Amino acid sequence: MKWSEVRKLYPNQFLKLKVLASHIENSQEFIEDIAVIKPISEKNATRELLNSKGDELVYHTVNESIVLEVRQDVGLRRFEYHENQA
After folding, report:
1. Where are the domains of the chain?
2. Is pLDDT above 80 for 13?
3. Under a CB-based contact definition with an 8 Å cutoff, are residues 54 and 22 in contact?
4. What would the pLDDT profile of 20-51 be if each residue is shown by its tens digit?
5. Do residues 52 and 43 lie in contact, with contact meaning Cβ atoms separated by under 8 Å?
6. Strands across the sheet with 28-40, in order?
């Protein structure tokens, strides 16, 4: 389903979505096709987002399009600390 259709069916609310098709340009992911999993209340939106896995996301229909910033995972560098033993 296209985002414009979803916005008409679910005006002014959070939704949990499954991404079906997208493409990446210049560190941005443009979502092209989605499936609505369920509407989400505003008070539960953050919890649902944190519990989302893989291709699921929570988004508000006030947004005209779904464009996500793609970030590389930055790992922590591990180093060993040795005290001087004298």
Report:
1. 3-69
2. yes
3. no
4. 999 999 989 999 999 999 999 999 999 999 99
5. no
6. 56-60, 14-25, 28-40, 67-69
